[in-house]
Amino acid sequence: MTPIEIMQKIGVCQQALTRGNTELKTLGVKKARAEHDYKVALRKEILRLRQLE
Length: 53
Hints:
The chain is mainly α. The chain has a domain at 29-53. Helix content is 94%, strand content 0%. The protein has one helix at 3-52. The termini are far apart.
């Protein structure tokens, strides 16, 4: 394997890592939003049930 081939493979790997990091961030943000929405809905339901008592 020549040094040029090694550098090309390193470049491909860097691009793959960048795409992976971007996807992880996107999924992390979506997960945080879903957890937030769930907690808000849960608290609303708890308040609604308390008012029925």
